[in-house]
Specification:
Length: 178
């Protein structure tokens, strides 16, 4: 292994993480971000799976959330601190979400993403998500449209092969501890 490989730790989000999550949330989404209470409620929601990602020094650098409902997971958010972008941390969280979906026998993933968020759309497409339409004026802060994205059944060979390829590529640049 090369010394240039980043090392991160991903764990289930805890109440102690929330203040740092709110800092990232505010940087990522501006004044119309989720509140501390919203995140605390999500941690008590039995359908919600939230994750915190820490850098090699133990600093909270990113977070993500999903809802697991029957055979479907809905990604509620993935956000990376602006100081840590372009390092693969959002991708590491997405991989972790998919790993959990495989363990939980969840077949499909869905999400909404701002149509202007080209980096996120590119990441989701890289992992086999496709657009299934637009939610007009979805975001309240500026009435921006949201792209609705879904995966095919993640247990289909087509998806699994792509996921395995992308996971191996990610592992070449980042060590993910769980």
């Amino acid at each position: 292994m090369s010394n240039s490989i980043n090392s991160v730790t991903i764990k289930r989000m805890s109440p102690e993480d929330i203040d740092g999550v709110i800092e990232i949330e505010a940087k990522a989404y501006g004044p119309h971000h989720w509140s501390k209470d919203s995140f605390l409620q999500e941690l008590n929601n039995e359908l919600a799976w939230y994750y915190s990602l820490f850098d090699e020094k133990g600093k909270l650098a990113a977070y993500a959330g999903t809802w697991h409902i029957l055979e479907e997971a809905h990604i509620t958010n993935i956000a990376v601190d602006s100081d840590y972008r372009r390092r693969g941390y959002g991708e590491a969280l997405l991989k972790h979400i998919l790993d959990d979906c495989y363990k939980e026998m969840i077949k499909y993933l869905t999400l909404e993403v701002r149509v202007s968020n080209k980096a996120a759309i590119g990441l989701y497409k890289k992992y086999g998500f496709t657009s299934f339409g637009i939610r007009k004026k979805y975001y309240q802060d500026n009435d921006e449209d949201a792209m609705i994205m879904w995966t095919k059944n993640i247990f289909y060979d087509e998806f699994k092969i792509l996921f395995e390829q992308k996971s191996k590529q990610l592992e070449e640049k980042i060590l993910i501890n769980v």
